[in-house]
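Please produce the structure of this protein holding heme C.
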Amino acid sequence: MRLISVLLLAATASFAQDADPDNAGGATVSERYIGNAEAVSAGQEQYELVCSSCHGVTGEGGRGPSLQTGLNARASGDELFHTIKNGIPGSGMPPSPLEEETVWQITAFVWSLSAPAIRQNVEGNVEAGEALFYGSGGCTDCHMIRGNGGYIGPDLSNLGVTRSVAQIRESLLDPNERFTEGFDPVILTLKDGTAIRGVAKNHSNYAIQVLGRDGRLYLLNRADVTLEFRESSWMPANYSERLSEAEIQNLLAFLSRQSVRPVETAEGGNLQ
Ligand code: HEC
Ligand code: HEC
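Below is the modeled complex.
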């Protein structure tokens, strides 16, 4: 199925290339807009005017679904363009009577909402973000990047590849909104009254595996412990107050570039 759609896309792409007289660099139409910072920012303005009433100002969803999650897994740039231009007949999603160029700009913006952060060229001072991460931010008390740091939070070495900018921003500023899988905060109380604070790695009706804030891994019978799942993450929820806008942006710039493999292009480019 995936192979077929890739082949079809390749066929449409080469057709678009032949038919497009302004095609200087040999890029497809989709490649010229997707990942292009100017197109994304022009698209954002149009999006706010035309789409935000249903999909939310940041694409968080409302009358229409969230545009921040899952889109890339399902749609190529051309498919997204098609949906935005033609709407979804018989649903609440209307067609756009806008010029093709404007629709492409909006497509670029919508794509950017759920694209991996590393493809986004996030603004900010990467070195300052790194210094904050390893220094006064205290992030390495709990998080590791390439073997350096703590265990109680997720390893962030590949964060730019696995998360979008919107997701990283949310984790940083609103960590209680959702927990990363395998990091549900718990407090276990043993029969002798000892409390263990940590994150639940695995649990069944009979057994639970918890990584404690002390760095130890506990494997216990459910019958031997009292278990309390907490509503709030061990991650501090006050970074939006503790850090300035510029510091947050620098951290985002640093975090969004974390990848375990070298990346060929940070600008998007090839979508498949
Ligand atoms: C009147 C409300 C409304 C407006 C305005 C609107 N949408 Fe939608 N949109 C929806 C609804 C409802 C759906 C879900 C349709 C369905 O699949 O049933 C949807 C679906 C979509 C999808 C598919 C989402 C997915 O998960 O597959 C995309 C992409 C999208 N809209 C983008 C846009 C963009 C970009 C604009 C502005 C040009 C826009 N929409 C304007 C209501 C709206
Ligand atoms: C006291 C421990 C602690 C500190 C300090 C901390 N975090 Fe976290 N962080 C966690 C835990 C636990 C989670 C997983 C649960 C959750 O999603 O909130 C997490 C989740 C995250 C995630 C989401 C990871 C993913 O898989 O998507 C990011 C990003 C993140 N933290 C960044 C940071 C940054 C940047 C700092 C420093 C400014 C920081 N954290 C400081 C404990 C911490």
